[in-house]
Amino acid sequence: MQTKSPAFEDIANLMTNAFGAAKGVGDEVRAAARARADRVIADMDLVSRDEFEAFKMMASSAQQEISELKSQVKKLEASVKALKKKAK
After folding, report:
1. Where are the alpha helices (DSSP H) in the chain?
2. Higher pLDDT, 1 or 8
3. Number of domains, the chain
4. How far apart are CA 42 and CA 36, in angstroms?
5. Each residue of 4-56: pLDDT tens digit?
6. Is residue 38 situated within a structural domain?
7. What span, in angstroms and rounded, lies between the C-alpha atoms of 57 and 51?
8. What are the angstrom distances between the C-alpha of 6 and each of 9, 60, 79?
């Protein structure tokens, strides 16, 4: 039969409390670092993911429209060239 020594129980309680305090400090440091990072990012004037995705869709749509307009211009240029040839 083993009995627990009061000294060992005290040491175990102290260690448990120390680990709890260390975890609390770690959580506070992590929260402070996160808040600081958020402030730095806000100061950098970065866009949000939603804004980026919206702009990406607009750019893709504009690129497609440009491609279609280029095709129309080529067809019109060919028509003008053919009309000039007939006029001669």
Report:
1. 6-43, 49-87
2. 8
3. 1
4. 10
5. 778 888 888 888 888 888 888 889 999 999 999 989 988 888 888 999 999 99
6. yes
7. 10
8. 5, 73, 102
* Domain extent for 13: 1-46
- Residue 88 in any domain: the answer is no
Spatial distance between the Cα atoms of 22 and 46, rounded to a whole number of angstroms: 34
User: Is the Cβ–Cβ distance between 47 and 55 less than 8 Å?
Assistant: yes
Cα–Cα–Cα angle for 17, 19, 25, rounded to 5 degrees: 105
Flag whether 5 is in a domain. Answer: yes
Q: Is the pTM of this model over 0.70?
A: no
Q: Whole-angstrom Cα distance, residue 87 to residue 80?
A: 10
Sequence length of the chain is 88
Indicate whether 33 belongs to any domain.
Answer: yes
pLDDT at 1: 46
Buried b (16+ CB within 10 A) or exposed e, 66-87: eeeeeeeeeeeeeeeeeeeeee
